[in-house]
Specification:
The complex is a heterodimer of chains A (325) and B (339). Chain A is built from 13 helices and two strands; from the N terminus they run αααααβαααααβααα. Chain A is mainly α and 325 residues long. In chain B, 78% of the residues lie in helices and 2% in strands. Chain B has 13 helices and two strands. In chain B, α11 crosses α12. Chain B starts with a helix and ends in a 12-residue tail after the last helix. The chains are: A mainly alpha (325), B mainly alpha (339). Chains A and B meet through α4, α11 and α13 of A and α5, α6, α11 and α13 of B.
């Protein structure tokens, strides 16, 4: 089960535990960036990308391999890893985007699973199921610097993950603002035109396939960035973190927030992680394993009910939801 | 002049052969598929020797029967309802757990447990049709809505099973130690039973789809729902039977998968993508194609272990899926149509 790594204690006192909520916040921010990619694909371009976890894996592993095996600087590895994910997005999209939407969804989830299996099997490069370590020393330095600033501001002991929390959410806000601005440009309007009616967009001379490819490439890049934060949060990389479940939870974030609304993605991410982690403080008379299962049942029911009664999501725009196929 | 004529003629001849191969695929798809499999087998026999090919081929048949049983239901549901049922894998899991409950907890004989699994999964499939899919279709729900509902449903079933039965790995009480040796080939007794049950079930499904009125109607609906309705077929009734059919076969596939491996909550989801691959290989909505696609995929995956590390075999299934989608999205046996 990916993502469920936060240290937890089932006490009321822990409810006010800042360290715990910092961990939840980091996860929510990571998923927000991940789901921003889904938003531009699903919400604005009408492309159902089920392979986002694969793009995330490409980004995270490229970064890890470049730093650990290639001896590259962490900061130089980041843009290269984003570029690798973008390239992989183009590689998948170029043949697959010609397919119908449902075929495309299946093709992308298969591509993501190939990536995960490759990460599992190419042990010399990725460490396989043993995991990959030792890529985050550069980040540890920056984290310490931020920690010192916080202490200089008079906060004696901020939680360990607090610097990461700040950087994740700063990235979420920046990326959301950029994407929302891009959406108001003529380029953004063409994306929506492609979503509404591909043939019409093509008829007025807009190359629909090229726009879909750009949308997918941007999503892949965002997936890679989410992968960096996942990697820094865990301190290691393991293929198990990139199961299709991650993509499905990303869709839950997207739908909880709402379609065709970039700012809603953050709300969806916070909501989902409050459901998945915040409910640890409810003192249910069942075993912790059953509690874990129950959380995912609740997420499943939420997805079903939202799709049945409010398919655009909480803050989505109904008029911008493409219902047909 | 004459230099350019010769290559042109050669190109034409090559094109001619290519077109001939294509039209064989279009006119006699099953013959072409069979020829493909036989050619693959012969090629491998030459390269790797008869024994290894036969041994991995048997394993391929075990895997292939499971894929094929799972794929028939998935493809019919897709063809008829345009629903990409991401919860289909969980039907397999459900069947395996019902068999576990019946045989281990209640102590019923294995045959009764298998029957119970098939019946319960059939009812489960129909239950969701009546409570979810039918009302959603009546509202004109779109592709994305149905897709995400199916994913939500998969969560509910999988984690519902985990809630009730726990996440530990269980085994069905099949005999997994004794093996049968036949002409130098070794096969577990359970595997042999799975192949036997698989062959009988697949033949029976083929006959139902080809000869029985209900089977023909299911295929007609999967081919063109509106046309079938205009032709006077009671689509509601046929849809009901399709779900029973799809659920029951998924339940059987789940028990078979549980018998040769282990029973765990991720059992079905792990099989879902290869089953999708089988469906796409056979052409979405084509029930016969799904049967053949499942068997071909099982064989290809197991034969791939002859020259690739076995750890890559799952990835081979996905590569086949993408390859077919890119090169021939209508499936190996399908006619070209909008995809």
């Amino acid at each position: 089960m990916s993502g469920v790594h936060v240290v937890h204690a089932v006490t009321l006192q822990a409810f006010t535990d800042l360290g715990f909520w910092t961990g939840v916040g980091v996860l929510a921010g990571t998923y927000a960036i991940f789901a921003l990619g889904l938003q531009i694909n699903v919400g604005y371009t009408g492309v159902i990308n089920f392979g986002q976890a694969g793009f995330m894996a490409i980004g995270a592993y490229t970064m890890g391999i470049l730093v650990v095996k290639g001896g590259l600087s962490f900061w130089l590895a980041l843009p290269l890893a984003v570029a690798a994910a973008v390239l992989f997005g183009l590689l998948v999209g170029l043949p697959a985007l010609r397919l119908r939407a449902d075929y495309f969804a299946i093709a992308t989830i298969a591509a993501a699973e190939i990536v995960r299996h490759a990460a599992q099997n190419a042990r010399e490069l990725t460490g396989g199921n043993q995991g990959m370590f030792g890529f985050d020393s550069a980040w540890a330095g920056l984290s310490e610097t931020i920690d010192e600033w916080l202490q200089a501001l008079g906060w004696s002991d901020p939680p360990t993950l607090f610097p990461l929390l700040l950087v994740v959410w700063a990235s979420v806000l920046l990326l959301t603002a950029v994407l929302a601005a891009a959406q108001r440009t003529p380029w953004g309007r063409v994306l929506r035109a492609v979503r509404e009616d591909e043939d019409a967009a093509r008829a007025v001379g807009k190359p629909a396939l090229a726009y879909k490819l750009q949308s997918l490439a941007i999503a892949a890049g965002l997936g890679a960035i989410a992968g960096f934060f996942l990697a820094l949060n865990l301190n290691f990389l393991n293929p198990k973190e990139f199961e299709p479940l991650f993509t499905f939870l990303g869709f839950a974030v997207l739908i909880l927030g709402g379609l065709a609304n970039y700012w809603a993605v953050s709300i969806g991410a916070v909501l989902l992680w409050t459901i998945l982690e915040g409910t640890r403080f409810l003192d249910l008379p069942i075993s912790s394993e059953r509690e874990a299962a129950l959380r995912f049942i609740v997420v499943g029911l939420l997805l079903i009910c939202l799709m049945a009664f409010r398919p655009q999501g909480m803050f989505g725009r109904r008029e911008e939801m493409v219902l047909g196929d | 002049m004459s230099e350019s004529v010769a290559p042109a003629a050669a190109t034409r001849r090559a094109e001619g052969r290519f077109v001939a191969a294509r039209s064989l695929l279009a006119r006699r798809p099953r013959t072409a598929a069979l020829a493909l499999v036989v050619a693959m087998a012969l090629g491998l026999v030459v390269l790797e020797g008869l024994h290894d090919v036969a041994q991995t081929g048997l394993n391929g048949l075990v895997l292939g029967s499971i894929y094929a049983l799972g794929a028939v239901g998935l493809t019919l549901v897709y063809g008829i309802l345009k629903l990409v049922n991401f919860a289909h894998g969980e039907f397999l899991t459900f069947g395996a757990y019902v068999a576990l409950l019946a045989s281990v907890t209640l102590g019923l004989p294995l045959v009764a447990a298998v029957v119970a699994a098939v019946a319960a999964t059939a009812v489960l499939g129909l239950g969701f049709e009546l409570t979810m899919w039918r009302p959603m279709r009546a509202r004109g729900a779109g592709l994305l809505q149905l897709l995400l509902m199916a994913i939500g449903l998969a969560f509910v079933i999988r984690y519902g099973i985990q809630y009730v039965a726990g996440s530990e790995i269980r085994t069905l009480p099949f005999d997994r130690t004794s093996t049968v040796e036949l002409a130098g080939l070794r096969l577990g007794r359970t595997e042999l039973i799975v192949i036997g049950v698989g062959c009988v079930a697949l033949t029976a499904i083929g006959l139902v789809l080809r000869l029985m009125l209900l089977g023909k109607r299911m295929r007609a609906l999967a081919d063109n729902l509106d046309l079938a309705e205009v032709a006077g077929i009671d689509t509601r009734r046929v849809t009901t039977f399709t779900w029973l059919f799809a659920g029951g076969l998924a339940g059987l596939a789940g028990v078979m998968a549980g018998a040769v491996t282990t029973v765990r909550p991720e059992l079905g989801f792990a099989l879902l993508l290869p089953i999708f691959a089988a469906v796409i290989l056979g052409g979405i909505g084509d029930a016969f194609g799904a049967l053949a696609g499942g068997l071909v995929l099982g064989l290809v995956i197991e034969w791939s272990t002859l020259f690739l590390d076995f750890r890559w075999k799952t990835a081979i299934g996905f590569a086949v899926l993408i390859g077919v989608l890119v090169v021939r999205p209508q499936g190996l046996f399908g006619r070209a149509r909008a995809v």
